[in-house]
Model the fold of this input.
Amino acid sequence: MISKITRIKDFYIDVWRRSVSTKTGRHLWLLLLLKVSILLVLFKILFFPNRLAEYETDVQKAEAVRQSMLNS
Amino acid sequence: MTDLIQTIDWSRWQFALTACYHWLFVPLTLGLSVICAVMETIYLKKGRPEKWLKLIKFWMSLFAINFVCGIATGIILEFEFGTNWSNYSWFVGDIFGAPLAIEGLFAFFLEATFVVVMLFGWKRVSPKFHLTATWLTAIGTSLSALWILVANAWMQFPTGMEFNPDTMRNEMTDFWSVALSPVALNKFCHTVMSGWALSGCFVIGVSGWLAAFGKRSDMAIPSVKVAGWVGLIGLVLTMAAGHGSILQVSKSQPMKFAALEGVWTGSTNAELTAVGLLNPDKELNNAEDPFIFKIGAPGVLSWATRGSTDAFIPGIEDIIAGRDTINGLEVNTVSYAERIARGKVALAALAEYGETHSPEALQTLRENYEFFGYGYYDSPSELVPPVGLIYYSYHMMVCGGMYMLLILAIGLFFAYKKQGLLEKKWWGAAAMLALVVSWIVSQSGWICAEVGRQPWVIQDLMPTRAAISAVSPSGVQTTFWAFAIVFTAMLIAEISIMINKIRQVAKK
Done:
């Protein structure tokens, strides 16, 4: 079991090494990092709060949606 | 009210921008994974020749670039659900929860695990295991698409649920009628197969460039043979599922159907317009001709939709008036005036139930819930979708699809019978045009499907205006432009990486 886990771990380490060994691979990793940091971290935190998260219980959330829908 | 309209419009633009950007990558992942799997199967059957290995690795590298570029583009849509569309995400929560959870499991475990083996496992696993991983990647991408499409199909054709006014949610009562609704099945086949067709055109387009401008016919010919067949089969099945889909739309979303075909006034022997220029002055119940110019086939729309050239096809005005004729008998559907009245009764009952929890209010709400969303409107004219955008995007999809069919068929013919023609520059240009056209077709398909549902987010139940959160239009506007800038920059970077990879191969 341990040897299997070690083999899987080695495989993924090898994948990482090989993927950063080429120019295309490095560009893709850079793009991925930029995308994740800009879209997932920056935008999510600054601009995309969950509007219903301010309500604590499901009953409160349901009431907020009811009022919002009835006043649309 | 102005602020609300601005918030709705900007939120819709933002969602459309994000969804269109996401959909640039998904169809290529769906189809190119199948093309790679077929190529690898041939490679093993032929006794693993080096030439085929190089070919597969090249297409897999383009698959990898596309796959990485597509990562996380879908998650942004979920941010928007929570911020701009919080009423909607609460209202559909239980219906969307199950399909999206299954999608997450498939996408993350099956797809992501086997993609790594497929791309980097050549010398680490046996050839047969590698082939299995490649096929599982292809199957996993299609299965993960299934659940998103099931959720989308439910928005077009809500079924298998009951609205609970205590929780304000549509709660799933029948998983299988949600998962196996006829709209979901047609949508899944149509969408996944369109990915095969698009990818076929992508490979033929890149191969066209490789053969005509890069002098790499050795790579182009086998690629065109595989991609041509995958693309052609995909396109024929796309058309078959598309026909099934349009029949379904004619029954469950007749207003969308009428807009797709530009039919304002119903008739027997209804004409299918192949090409047409809509009259922008045409409005509900005015005497203007809907078309400035058109070329069509009389009777074909009646025949293709209801099986006879004598069949009546209702137009927008008939649907609003509640008129239809089936098998020669006048049938009264529910007029939009009545739907609006019953929708207002349902809305009032919901308000009353919220305050009193009376069983009578609940009963009234349940009796009228099927027209709940109509209660938000005062006039039937507000319920007519934007016919121009729907009509043109639909016809662009159909015409572009015909061009794709032509290029896939000619490409196959050249690859088997006239290989020298694949090196002609005119062919390279025509094949690369098919690559561009296939993306326009793919995006147009989604535009007519989604805009055609307007003004609904969930057909008949939730209009766009009720789905929106109380957010400021300026905030949404800011993030729209921020997304537009970031997406454009990323797309340029992504296309550059792909072009560099193709050029590298041509140089070798």
Q: What stands out?
A: The helical segments of chain A are 2-20, 23-47, 58-70.
